[in-house]
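Project outcomes to date are best conveyed with an example. Our students and postdoctoral researchers have been running inverse folding experiments weekly, and each run begins with a structure described purely in tokens. The record below, which covers 267 residues, was selected by the lab manager from last quarter's runs and is presented without edits.
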């Protein structure tokens, strides 16, 4: 019960396959009280998923691109809980023309939309919740390795690199208040978001074969378990960190076939 008594806000639950769903379920089993956020047409899906959790939580409105939603969220959390202990940022989006090998053709507006939704929103969430953290707490965001240029990720990859920078600056500025900010760089998981990335299946197949510990793209629980650690007091002196939960893939070189690096392998 490493989260017993903790109040945790989880964004990004779409359905039971979401990594955020696994985190919310694990947090409840670890003793936390959980609230979810969603918005617009997706909110109905989130509410259905919420009913499948061990204890059905309420779903609060939050469109991360609407300032008024952040203000309303802070007021709601203050009224319900009087404070907060942890939050999970599991929000990312890039328009179709910002993915799939169209990096050079992507218009400014689409690149901006990817950055604002996927990276700047972490700052907006952390800033909103800052006054609600009492004697410290934890913010955990979901990442995907931004140290290389992936064949299919394009401006979402750029946004993830920005997310990593945002997390470091937040760790710097919120650390004096005892608020930790960490990322989990997860291997590919078959979620709704992943289904919108061209070539995801090929990437996932390569990941399974190269990760030394193996990798199950249908199992988000290893990522969720790492999030529980980062949300708990066990990580009380960990901040500004990128924790890889990817079966060890990130530490390996390109796959080798007959002594020659496979041309189609992700790098």
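After processing, the design step wrote out the following sequence:
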């Amino acid at each position: 019960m490493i989260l017993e008594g903790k109040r945790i806000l989880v964004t990004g639950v779409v359905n039971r396959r979401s990594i955020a769903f696994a985190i919310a379920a694990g947090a409840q089993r670890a003793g936390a009280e959980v609230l979810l956020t969603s918005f617009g047409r997706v909110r109905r899906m989130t509410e259905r998923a919420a009913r499948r959790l061990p204890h059905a939580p309420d779903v609060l409105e939050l469109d991360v691109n609407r300032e008024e939603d952040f203000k309303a969220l802070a007021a709601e959390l203050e009224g319900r809980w009087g404070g907060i202990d942890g939050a999970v940022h599991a929000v990312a989006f890039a328009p179709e023309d910002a993915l799939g090998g169209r990096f050079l053709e992507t218009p400014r507006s689409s690149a901006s939309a990817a950055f604002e939704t996927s990276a700047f929103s972490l700052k907006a969430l952390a800033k909103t919740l800052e006054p609600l953290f009492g004697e410290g707490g934890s913010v955990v965001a979901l990442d995907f390795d931004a140290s290389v240029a992936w064949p299919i990720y394009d401006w979402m990859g750029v946004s993830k690199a920005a997310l990593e920078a945002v997390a470091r600056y937040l760790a710097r500025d919120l650390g004096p208040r005892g608020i930790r900010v960490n990322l989990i760089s997860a291997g590919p998981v078959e979620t709704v978001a992943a289904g919108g990335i061209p070539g995801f299946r090929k990437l996932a197949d390569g990941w399974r074969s190269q990760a030394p510990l193996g990798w199950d793209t249908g199992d988000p629980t290893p990522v969720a378990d790492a999030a529980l650690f980062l949300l708990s007091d066990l990580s009380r002196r960990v901040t500004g960190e990128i924790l890889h939960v990817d079966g060890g893939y990130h530490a390996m070189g390109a796959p080798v076939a007959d002594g020659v690096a496979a041309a189609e392998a992700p790098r």
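The chain has one domain: 7-261. The CA atoms of residues 99 and 129 lie 31 Å apart. The training component of this project remains on track.
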